[in-house]
Amino acid sequence: MDSLMSIILIAFGSICAASFYVPIKKIKEWSWESYWIVQGVVSWILAPWIFAYFTVPNLLDVLKNSPSDAVWAAFIFGALWGVGGLTFGLSMRYLGVGLGQSVALGFTAALGTLIPPFVSGRNLFTTYEGRLILLGVALCVAGIAIVGYAGVLRSRNMPEEARREAIKDFALKKGLLIAVLSGLMSACFNFGINGIPGVIDAGYAIQKVAASYGTDPLFVVNPVYIIVMFGGFVTNFVYCMYLNYQNKTFSDYVKVNKQVLLNNLLFSLLGGTLWYLQFFFFGMGQSKLPEEMFVFGWSILMALNILFSNVWGLLLKEWKNAGAKTVATLVVGLVILILSTFVIKL
What we know:
The chain is mostly helical. Helix content is about 75%, strand content about 0%. Helix 3 crosses helix 13, helix 5 crosses helix 10 and helix 6 runs antiparallel to helix 14. The protein is globular.
């Protein structure tokens, strides 16, 4: 029952993540770098503190008494994760949405799940649970690849002018290198919150401190988010301020009228909160996994994020006129992603 509850909780988080761009798209008259960092203040600074404050007893004492080396490791992994998020967009620019997304997220799922046991010396082939993890990751990556292929098929059905616009910067070698980098850096989020057993404690040590103060196991990861996401915020803040300077868009924050400003702040608040909730529910769901399958929670999150993102795409008619073969390919990929999450029930 706990395994099923784990999937349900992580699925709630994935629905929130997939819904993140719905309010963000309603932001007006701001450049990408302006609205991105504003929603980032909500999702990477405010939300982690607010949710941790209400779920972690003696939050300040937990943070104060956490090992400094674990705190720094969590922060650094968070900063590297921030690099992954920024390069994710570049991978789609050079490879197209379908191929770029499938390569980057495939690596994120695989590396985020498999590196910790590999580095800590755990042989996944020798145990039943380890083989299930390998099977689940393989299905997850296969599902992402098929969904990516469906994206490639959809682009082929686009008008010639739109297709040239979409792939005008296509560069296979550069795109693949950036996609691999994005996958590795994005996987650092998992390393930051859970550490690498036997090698780097990072967020795992902070979780133990939270547990010692009587925090419910569902919420022990919440104080870790404060540190990891602050690392990600720093990376994104530096880059967005650079773009504001380069593109002369600092005026975005003050040039709009009060009604537009209120609209933008409200939708940034909603979008940022939805984005954070994916990890809030992920932490709850991860706590319900069997100890031997703990690392597989990351793969479940990636699979369900892709699943619900494409469900939104279908609902918003982004696949309209894509063709029966393309939609069928997409559905096959989504079914495989669903199957990959239920490996923990075997």
